[in-house]
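R.M. (postdoc): so does anyone remember the format we settled on? I'll just put the structure tokens first.
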């Protein structure tokens, strides 16, 4: 005799509970079936996830996610250097010194090598 979840005493090998008429489940067999199901799993990660990542590529000339291409870099250079040179011609080096520093920093960050891939 064993006790069903409803509290009724159920004889061994009974198909259902005499009180609530629910079919009696063999919990050990159910657990074994569950383990078998999980052991049959054959999932493996796709090759894309296991492949080593390609080596990084750096470039000064080609565009990347964080850098402009050659055309934009040349346009930036001609604009900023041109404006700075014009300002130097008009006002002299002394008064344009801050702009020269800003232009130098801009050119450094524009033309520095950046990771493109
Ligand atoms: Zn029952």
């Amino acid at each position: 005799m064993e006790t069903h979840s409803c509290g009724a005493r159920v004889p061994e090998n009974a198909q259902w509970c005499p009180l609530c008429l629910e079919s009696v489940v063999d919990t050990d067999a159910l657990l074994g079936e569950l383990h078998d199901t999980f052991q049959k799993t054959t999932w493996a990660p796709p090759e894309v996830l296991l492949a080593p990542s390609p080596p990084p590529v750096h470039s000064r000339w080609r565009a990347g996610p964080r850098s402009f291409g050659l055309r934009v870099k040349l346009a930036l250079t001609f604009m900023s250097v041109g404006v700075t040179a014009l300002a130097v011609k008009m006002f002299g080096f002394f008064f344009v010194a801050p702009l020269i520093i800003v232009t130098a920093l801009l050119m450094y960050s524009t033309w520095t090598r950046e990771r493109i891939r």
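R.M.: ...and that's the designed sequence above, right after the tokens. Also worth knowing: The chain has a mean pLDDT of 90. Strands lie at 2-3, 9-10, 58-59, 114-115.
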